[in-house]
Amino acid sequence: MRKWIAVAAAVLLTAAGAAAFRWLAGGEETPRAATFRGERTTDHYIPIATRALDPEPLTVAEVFPADSVASGGTTLLRAGTETLTGCAEAVWGTVETAVAGCTQALRARYATPDGRVSGQFLIFNLADSAAADRLVAALKGGGFVRTAPGTPEGFDGSRSRAQARALGHYVTVSWVAPVGTGGRVDLTEPQVALDSLGFVIQKRLVK
User: Signal sequence span per UniProt (predicted)?
Assistant: First the structure.
């Protein structure tokens, strides 16, 4: 009996270890970024520190005004946009708790013309800057944003990188990854290109 229990325990530990490896390596449906950087909001965004101060909802046309974004000679083409009223749809794990009170999440998927890099940009509309900071903190572990519908199967979470910024009562997330198992892909410019979509919030400061 003891031998059977020991064998069963070993099998469970092996399965759990394999599952954890797949999760960390981006092999599951819910991968997370291998490299993540999060930034809290600053006093610069005090004029939009709460939704009450900035009540007008975001629109797709406002956040994603062009069909592409570019940086340093790298261009990413927009492949689709979504407006989610249920912000929990866009995240998984403990991050679901951190989006409580979020009224909308806008998401767009992007890819380089050659398909070697895929990415997405999200923006969450939260109640206030404290909630925005909590979401950025939650993204550091215990969950992450979900990949957008239509993301290529070869999206390699194990080599991906993401940036999250709290900007007043908003949080932006840009996430890029190489597609497939080819050689090294420089994600610097694709990341900068997607992250630049967050500049839309600067316009909210002067309304």
Answer: 1-20
The token pair at 129 is 């800057």
Q: Which amino acid is at 191?
A: Q
Cβ neighbours of residue 84 closer than 8 Å, sequence gap 6 or more: 90, 104, 105, 106, 107
What's the CA gap between 38 and 132, in Å, rounded?
11
CA–CA dist 154, 179 (Å, integer): 5
- Closest C-alpha among 130, 118, 117 to residue 170: 130
Residue with tokens 């403990």: 94
CB burial of residue 30 (10 Å; 0-12, 13-18, 19+): middle
Q: Which residues pair with 120 in a beta bridge?
A: 109, 175
DSSP state at residue 146: P
Boundaries of every domain in the chain: 1-30, 31-205
Check: pTM over 0.70? Answer yes or no.
yes
